[in-house]
Write a structure and sequence with these properties.
CATH class: Alpha Beta
Strand content: 5-15%
Distance between the termini: 41 Å
CATH superfamily: HUPs
Number of helices: 8
Strand order of the largest sheet: 3-2-1-4-5
CATH topology: Rossmann fold
CATH architecture: 3-Layer(aba) Sandwich
Order of helices and strands: EHEHEHHEHHEHH
Oligomer: single chain
Shape: globular
Structural class: alpha/beta
Number of strands: 5
Helix content: 25-40%
Length: about 220
Amino acid sequence: MNKKAIIMFSGGLDSTTCLAIARSQGFSCYAMSFAYGQKHHVEVERAKAIAEQFGVIEHKTFSLPLDEIRGSSLTDVNMPVQDYQGGDKIPDTYVPARNTIFLSFALAWGEVIGARDIFFGANHLDYSGYPDCRPEYLQAFEKVAKLATKAGVETDQQWTIHAPLLYMSKAQIIREGLRLGIDYGQTISCYRADQYGRACGACDSCTYRKKGFAEAGVADPTSYV
């Protein structure tokens, strides 16, 4: 393994699958997690444990005060996380500019350690309609990465944002992860997870996760309240 990759890592179903895929492709993996004032902060501790199990080269957790900006039910104490609503409207679980901020940190760390590959668990099928999970957004960020970094300007190096789950259903993601040996019972996806990591079973993220296991035809190992 001599290819380095930054893995955007929350300890959830999608990011853990991304980590497993990156490792299977021969990348030396550097995991990056964020404590950004999210109510489901327990995911940060779970991410640490899973990263250790996968033997990543290094795992960094950054603290960002996005709860001071608010604007999302994930970070604003005055906005409760709702049950799954459906529809085409972007839900209030969208955190303003979150993925742009996260990817910028990954870009900075990647430039320092010589990693030009970033793995990001964006999904364009079974997801909540977030604007910063769309393919055109990822393509635009690759252009920004080349324009905004010393590596991109002086050595003409290209940055690649890998989104291997982009066009996969949750069921397909789960099947791939199981093939790669993931224990999904250790992952946390719930937006209202309690201090023990138990899921609510009714929020957007839980709804898509439950649907995925049902369609994959495998038992759901999630611990529910």
